[in-house]
Every structure is written in structure tokens, then in C-alpha cells.
Amino acid sequence: MEAKMKKLSDLLSKVSWLLTLPIPVFDKNVKHERKPLQKYVAAVCSPDMVTIVDGFNYSCDLLQTIEQTKENVVKKQALTYEEMEQEREEEETQVDTESDDEDQQIYNPLKLPMGWDGKPIPYWLYKLHGLGQEFKCEICGNYSYWGRRAFERHFKEWRHQHGMRCLGIPNTKNFNEITNIQEAQELWEKIRERQGVNKWRPDLEEEYEDKEGNIYNKKTYTDLQRQGLI
């Protein structure tokens, strides 16, 4: 800190001659004259001196920032715990209010779904994917899916798989497009019956032949053999 103050003192000694310059008169009505001193110095001084003046201005701004930081630290140290909590709540309330204002500024009269950027998706995209169509699935607990694409994709998602598992039905391609619980159960019964008719039943269909050439199924042959008739 002492080194910085020494540099600032040297800088002030170099630009002290500026006090001997005539006082310039600036037009306050001209909005674009934000730094009249720099413009005046640039007009009457060499480039090296302009650089010195710019450094002087920067040092002044830096000192002002340091003083403000010190005042803020002293102020924080003097606050009680309750005052610090109150100040924090006020800051959070201010942030929430700004967020609410931003949300209210979103113009969405057609109630379009929000995109990844938090803004309504384009209307042409909304029509392309048919997002105005609602599909309800009773197996998913009457959950609504908007658009044909989302509806077709949901049959492989966890919600539908969980619903089918609760019904004791395997989630296969046979049950695609079926959203009604009763329809799913009826189809499952038909599939089980069909699998039962086509299933290999060795006790009825496996054939055995005795010494006399008679043909029996496995169950009958085993019974006769147990009775000693064969």
C-alpha cells in the first residue's frame, strides 16, 4: 500500500503543472462530452502527458473503490446477526422480484410449450409435432402426452413400464397403442390362451408303444405300466 501511495505522489508531482493551465469552459448541454478533462488535456498536451493524466484518473478511481470497500467492510462488521439476515432476505426478495418481472414479460397468448431457453417454441414447430393433440394413458395413471411423437415414445419409458409391471403384464410390442387397462388385460388373456394351445405338453402328446404295437400317450402308458398291465 505504501508503494502505491508513493507512486501516486510521484504522479501528482508530474501533473501539478496542470494547475497553471487556463481553466477550460465546457458546454454542459453537450451529452457526448463525458470526459471533458481528458479531451482538454489531449488538445493542449503531448501524448506522454495524456497517458500520465489517464493514469492519474485511474488511480483516483481505484482509491475511491478502495475507500468504498473499506466502508462496506466496517459496516458489515458493525451489523448484528439479525441485521445481516434481514439484509440477506431483502436481497433475495429483490432477486425474486426481478425474476418475476422477467417471467411476466414473456408474451405467450397461444399458451405454447416452453423450449430449453425458457421461451415459447415457434408456432410452426408446435403444429409440426402436433403438440395440440392430447393423448391420455390409463395405464400411466391417466397421464397426458402432448403430440403423437411423445405418445409413441412413452410406451418404452419408465412410467408405462411401471404401470404394466403393476398389472403383471410384460411390456412387449403386442401392447403398443393400448392405453386402457381392461383392453390390456383382455389381450394378455388371449395371448396366454394361444400360448397354452400351442405349448408342447408331453404328458398328452408324447407317444409310447407297447410290445403289441399299441400307441399310448405318456400319461396313459405310465398308468398302465404302474398297474402292471403292460
TrEMBL record:
Residues 83-103 are annotated as: Disordered. One of its GO terms (molecular function) is zinc ion binding. InterPro entries: Matrin/U1-C_Znf_C2H2, RNA_Proc_DNA_Dmg_Regulator, SF3a60/Prp9_C. It is found in: Nucleus. GO terms for cellular component: spliceosomal complex. This is Matrin-type domain-containing protein. One of its GO terms (biological process) is mRNA splicing, via spliceosome. It comes from Gossypium laxum. Keywords: Metal-binding, Nucleus, Zinc, Zinc-finger. It comes from the Eukaryota. Residues 135-166 form the Matrin-type domain. PANTHER family: SPLICING FACTOR 3A SUBUNIT 3, SPLICING FACTOR SF3A-RELATED.
